[in-house]
């Protein structure tokens, strides 16, 4: 009973951390859309400040340890390069598409992650895990339907197809980054992973970035860039815990609810009315997350049980072998003693 209660609290903690990650992603999407609406096109400058904040906080912790890196630096560089490209493509998409379309198409990361973890990490998913993932994607389909019913006018300066292509390309980069980060945090140190990701991401952003002077700085613009940096900092800080406790797939399923958090932000800042389909979508996504989480825990238990049974079987087999060898040795000794008596 106590073990089940502990598993329940662990499940609730994973879901809570996943929703914090989703909220930080919604905040970064909100600030990115506002920056794009103000006519500023500087995706690398946005990510520069985010990686700078990660470096300032986590790199001194790693340097204070005075230990050798547990993973070669060039793997961190490759992981950071892919992560920077994914952030660039998605932030760039806000110049051509709408926040609802960008956050909706982020769900494609789930598909890529399932494929990558299936082939790269050997992860196997049950039927109900696929049902949970499908329910989350179906929930965001309701979000798309709700957006189609909204009376917002289309901006002639937008190119939604180009923006959608950029988002899908970005999700491929995020899938590789998430799976690589999942492998690192499960095998090595979380603080080192975040510190190196921030440091090498900062270097890649500096190399690719043109100039900070391309942005016309004002109090509003500074607050938006700062808000984006803080949101990304929260995202990368909490992400390793979710990956460590669960995996990249549940992590990306949690990100699907960032659409609902984005709706909450729009209500608080713009006082807009929300279509009832949004609430139905949130319920469907929540059910999908619970189905996936419960079956993920049960599959882990089955793997652990089979491993324990195999270990016990090997122990019993070794004990039988040792018992047999002792009995054979005893019979040989008795035979030798009889021969001596006969002589």
List the helices and strands and how they pair.
Elements: H1 2-37, H2 43-65, H3 73-93, H4 99-105, H5 108-119, H6 127-148, H7 160-187, H8 190-208, H9 219-245, H10 248-255, H11 258-270, H12 276-342
Helix pairs in contact: 1-9, 1-10, 1-11, 2-8, 2-9, 3-7, 3-8, 5-7, 5-10, 6-12, 7-9
Folded structure, characterized:
With 343 residues, this protein is mainly alpha-helical. The longest helix is centred in the C-terminal third of the chain and has 67 residues, at 276-342. The protein starts with a helix and ends with a helix. The chain is built from twelve helices and no strands. The model is unreliable at 300-320 and 331-343 (pLDDT under 50).
How would you summarize this macromolecular structure in one to three sentences?
The chain has 343 residues and is mainly α.
């Amino acid at each position: 009973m106590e073990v089940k209660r502990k598993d329940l609290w662990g499940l609730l903690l994973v879901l809570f951390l996943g929703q914090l990650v989703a909220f930080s992603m919604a905040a970064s999407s909100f600030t990115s859309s506002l920056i794009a609406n103000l006519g500023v096109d500087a995706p690398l400058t946005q990510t520069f400040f985010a990686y700078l904040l990660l470096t300032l906080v986590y790199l001194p912790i790693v340097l204070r340890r005075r230990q050798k890196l547990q993973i070669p630096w060039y793997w961190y560089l490759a992981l950071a390069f892919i992560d920077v490209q994914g952030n660039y493509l998605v932030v760039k998409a806000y110049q051509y598409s709408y926040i609802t379309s960008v956050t909706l198409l982020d769900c494609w990361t789930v598909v890529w992650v399932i494929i990558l973890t299936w082939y790269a990490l050997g992860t196997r998913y049950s039927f109900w895990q696929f049902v949970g993932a499908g329910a989350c994607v179906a929930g965001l389909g309701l979000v798309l339907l709700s957006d189609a019913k909204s009376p917002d006018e289309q901006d002639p300066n937008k190119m939604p197809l180009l923006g959608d292509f950029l988002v899908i390309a970005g999700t491929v980069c995020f899938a590789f980054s998430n799976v690589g980060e999942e492998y690192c945090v499960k095998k090595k140190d979380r603080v080192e992973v975040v510190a190196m990701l921030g440091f090498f991401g900062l270097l890649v952003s500096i190399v690719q970035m043109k100039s900070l002077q391309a942005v016309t700085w004002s109090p509003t613009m500074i607050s938006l860039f700062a808000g984006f940096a803080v949101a990304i900092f929260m995202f990368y800080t909490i992400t390793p815990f979710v990956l460590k406790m669960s995996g990249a797939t549940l992590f990306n399923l949690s990100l699907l609810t960032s659409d609902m958090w984005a709706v909450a932000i729009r209500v608080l800042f713009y006082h807009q009315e929300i279509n009832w389909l949004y609430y139905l979508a949130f319920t469907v996504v929540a059910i999908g997350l619970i189905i996936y989480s419960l079956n993920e825990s049960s599959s882990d238990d089955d793997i652990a049980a089979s491993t324990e049974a195999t270990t016990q079987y090997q122990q019993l087999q070794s004990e039988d072998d040792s018992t047999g060898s002792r009995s054979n040795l005893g019979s040989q000794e008795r035979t030798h003693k009889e021969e001596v008596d006969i002589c």
